[in-house]
Amino acid sequence: MKIDLCNIDIKDLAIIVSSEFEKNNISAVLVGDACVSIYSCNEYLSMDLNYITYTTIEELKPVMSSLGFFKKSSRHFEHQECRFFIEFPPPPIAIGYEFPINRFHRIKSLKMLTPTDSVKDRLTAYYNWNDQQSLDQALMIVRKQEVNLKEVKEWSEGEQSLEKFNRFKSLLTKTNKKI
Q1: What is the chain's alpha carbon radius of gyration, rounded to the nearest angstrom?
Q2: What residue spans define the domains of the chain?
Q3: What tens digit of pLDDT does each residue of 147-159 get?
Q4: Closest Cα to residue 134, out of 171, 108, 103, 107?
Q5: Cα(18)–Cα(41) distance, rounded to whole angstroms?
Q6: Residues 155, 117: Cα–Cα separation, whole Å
């Protein structure tokens, strides 16, 4: 089966890459913007897939090259026909002060942050750096997915960010989501 990497959807690419990892006994979790793309049904489109794994880059190289992706920098792989690139940020998976993250959502072979954890991941950037785009991404996820907003509020208390959570909550109220 020939894969059209020029026109592939980010979710389909993530499933293909994850399937190849699974075949090679590599445990990896999709995090970051690509989760936002998948959970927002591409309302936000990331151009990169970030996987967290304890597998070394040297061990990943042959698996990535089997998919046609080649190392471009220390943790970054590209394919000449694919608009998306793949990165491997260092482990562990953490969201703000919450560590370790052990719950994941699965789509076929793809293991990724849950919608609730993806919202918390985006809110981390908003809470710490006032990143408005990350706040918008958190709202996109909540509008399209079932998210445990009580958990997000409790987590926000632990992050000492209730004031910013209340802004998030007020924006949600405008979209008819209840907390």
Answers
A1: 17
A2: 10-95, 115-173
A3: 999 999 999 999 9
A4: 171
A5: 19
A6: 10
Q: What CATH architecture is 10-95?
A: 2-Layer Sandwich (3.30)
Q: Give the tokens for residue 81.
A: 């026909």
What would the two tokens of residue 116 be?
A: 């609730």
Query: What are 161's two structure tokens?
Result: 């960010």
- Residue 35, classed as helix, strand or coil, is helix
Model confidence pTM above 0.90: yes
Asked if 147 and 123 count as a contact pair (C-beta separation under 8 A), the reply is: no
Tell me how far the alpha carbon of residue 165 is from its chain's centroid: 20
> What SS3 class is residue 31?
strand
Q: Which residues of 17-30 are buried (b: 16+ CB within 10 A; e: fewer)?
A: bbebbeeeebebbb
SS3 state of residue 76: strand
* DSSP 8-class letter at 131: -
Q: CA-to-CA distance for 35 and 30, rounded, in angstroms? A: 7
118-134 pLDDT tens trace: 999 999 999 999 999 99
Q: Could you tell me how many residues make up the chain?
A: 179
